[in-house]
Amino acid sequence: MFLKVWQPKGAESTEIVGTVGGAAVLGGFGGMRSTTPSPYSFGEIIKAWSPFLILTVLVTIWTLKPFKAMFAHGGAMEQFVFTIAIPYLDQLIIKVAPVVANPTAMTAVFKFDPISAGGSAILLSAVISAFILKVSLKNTLETFGETLVSLKWPILSIGMVLAFAFVTNYSGMSTTLALVLAGTGAAFPFFSPFLGWLGVFLTGSDTSTNALFGSLQPTTAHQIGVNDTLLVAANTSGGVTGKMISPQSIAIACAATGLVGKESDLFRFTLKHSLIFATIIGVITLAQAYVFTGMLVH
């Protein structure tokens, strides 16, 4: 809809360069404009979009509180959540002052929830989509296998990052770093987003940077007397600004757009924008920490 009222510079060219779905397409930098109606019916369009619609509906259901409550302690489906206390670790590490006010034992419990986990919603949506689109069982399994093969290194990478996050948390590394960073005092809220920014640059994942620095941010917040939710949110928001300079993201973008070999050019171009956005978030975080405190959840 937006491109119906705006076109980037150079889009004024009206040369017909080809067809998409039977509709004539006008050439021009930055976009394509159809001059004839699509030959597809409304039902066919909905069917093509059905995987995304199903995914949206299922993920939304999985995030609803009533659904989550069924798998919580005392819920109707509690028996489908399996927990295993890690021997020689669970309740054996004690957090003490100045990290916490009172000595607190750290739990180390492996939780396996095959139904209520978010990934289960995605898997179920894929199965339903394959049925609606009439994809054969053979093609479905082949696609699933190809996906696993293509994701083998990202899966290993994310697993190692999460493992490292557990090591830093249980060894005290993250709390030690938090105490050091607390030395920046009142200025830390400004630098808080840059931790998330750095984490995504190194790992390529906002989830991973939250795992790495998720416990560090609230610990530092308690030390300097600011809202811990704010700094955790700043970590996530700062991580988003680092996504555009992540080597993994740049490699994927160049491969998808036919710019293989231009990764360094893209990095130099996006770096300044990434730093600008991270700085803006830092300023906003600083303002919310000390000036606009009423905007925060207490």
Automatic annotation (TrEMBL):
<comment type="function">
    <text>Uptake of L-lactate across the membrane. Can also transport D-lactate and glycolate.</text>
</comment>
<dbReference type="GO" id="GO:0015295">
    <property type="term" value="F:solute:proton symporter activity"/>
</dbReference>
<keyword id="KW-0813">Transport</keyword>
<dbReference type="GO" id="GO:0005886">
    <property type="term" value="C:plasma membrane"/>
</dbReference>
<feature type="transmembrane region" description="Helical">
    <location>
        <begin position="177"/>
        <end position="202"/>
    </location>
</feature>
<feature type="transmembrane region" description="Helical">
    <location>
        <begin position="45"/>
        <end position="64"/>
    </location>
</feature>
<keyword id="KW-1003">Cell membrane</keyword>
<keyword id="KW-1133">Transmembrane helix</keyword>
<dbReference type="GO" id="GO:0015129">
    <property type="term" value="F:lactate transmembrane transporter activity"/>
</dbReference>
<keyword id="KW-0812">Transmembrane</keyword>
<dbReference type="Pfam" id="PF02652">
    <property type="entry name" value="Lactate_perm"/>
</dbReference>
<feature type="transmembrane region" description="Helical">
    <location>
        <begin position="115"/>
        <end position="133"/>
    </location>
</feature>
<feature type="transmembrane region" description="Helical">
    <location>
        <begin position="153"/>
        <end position="170"/>
    </location>
</feature>
<protein>
    <recommendedName>
        <fullName>L-lactate permease</fullName>
    </recommendedName>
</protein>
<comment type="similarity">
    <text>Belongs to the lactate permease family.</text>
</comment>
<keyword id="KW-0472">Membrane</keyword>
<feature type="transmembrane region" description="Helical">
    <location>
        <begin position="275"/>
        <end position="297"/>
    </location>
</feature>
<dbReference type="InterPro" id="IPR003804">
    <property type="entry name" value="Lactate_perm"/>
</dbReference>
